[in-house]
Amino acid sequence: MSFFLHKANFLLRTVYPEFWWKVDDDTEPTIYLTFDDGPIPDVTEFVLEQLDKYAAQATFFCIGDNVRKHHDVFYYVIEAGHMIGNHTFNHLNGWKTEDELYLENIQLCQEQIGFDTGLFRPPYGRIKKSQAAALLDTHAVVMWDVLTGDFDQTLSPEVCLRKTLQYTEPGSIVVFHDSLKAWPTMRYVLPRTLAYFAERGYSFRAVPQPVYAGF
């Protein structure tokens, strides 16, 4: 079984206060849904269909190589009005990658995306302080408040849903995965999460672009 925290704890937020964990917005209860690792045919398209049912905006942190291979699906995400973030070209673990190679891989992803984005999420949530320092003038490093765990194939969809509903609150940045690995669980959890919070008056928005990056 994978070990992970469904809820980002105080210690993580304290060690990395410069990263984005939640979005402060007092106007109305809002959840910031994010999807990592796509675009993937069928899987990402299912996500788009579910979001459309609730007029929900989300942020897709894309793998550059997947954008290259599935550019038509990537176009569907953009056409639907969602936000795009950089997730490296090859899903690199920053802790295990030299800084120069890591930053080059981010740039390769940027080239595939084809337009500027000030949003970056490190794969696995693992990034060195030195790598982050090279990015923070132009990018927000977007982490999460709630990790659904849809990628954990030992976790039942029912438990994944229960934990996601339990920990999500106004301003939460919530991580799902539009990947083949997460697909069996995500397709159960996502529609029910959307329905649950929509019934309680929540809206769903994309993570905003950082103003200091010129957006």
Task: Please supply descriptive tags for the structure shown above.
215 residues, single chain, 8 helices, six-stranded parallel β-sheet, alpha/beta, TIM Barrel
Give the topology, please.
Elements: H1 10-15, E1 30-36, H2 43-53, E2 59-62, H3 64-69, H4 71-79, E3 83-86, H5 99-113, E4 119-120, H6 129-135, E5 140-141, E6 146-147, H7 157-167, E7 173-177, H8 183-199, E8 203-204
Parallel strand pairs: 1-2, 1-7, 1-8, 2-3, 4-5, 6-7
Helix pairs in contact: 2-8, 7-8
What does this structure look like?
- The protein is α/β, with parallel strands linked by helices.
- It has one domain: TIM Barrel, CATH 3.20.20.
- Helices cover 38% and strands 13% of the residues.
- The longest helix is centred in the C-terminal third of the chain and has 17 residues, at 183-199.
- The radius of gyration is 16 Å and the shape is globular.
- The mean pLDDT is 94.
- This is Polysaccharide deacetylase.
- Residues 29-205 form the NodB homology domain.
- Keywords: Hydrolase, Metal-binding.
- GO terms for molecular function: hydrolase activity, acting on carbon-nitrogen (but not peptide) bonds; metal ion binding.
* End-to-end distance: 40 Å
H/E topology pattern: HEHEHHEHEHEEHEHE
Return the average pLDDT rounded to an integer. Answer: 94
Q: What CATH architecture label applies?
A: Alpha-Beta Barrel
CATH class: Alpha Beta
Q: List low-pLDDT spans.
A: none
How many H/I helices? 8
The main pleated sheet reads as: 6 strands, parallel
CATH topology call:
TIM Barrel
Percentage of residues assigned to helices? 25-40%
Per CATH, the superfamily is: Glycoside hydrolase/deacetylase
User: What gross morphology would you assign?
Assistant: globular
**What structural category do the secondary elements indicate?**
alpha/beta
Binned strand content: 5-15%
- How much is the radius of gyration in Å? 16 Å
Please give the domain count. 1
Beta-strand segment tally = 8
GO cellular component, one term: membrane
Keywords: Hydrolase, Metal-binding
GO molecular function: hydrolase activity, acting on carbon-nitrogen (but not peptide) bonds; metal ion binding
Domain NodB homology: 29-205
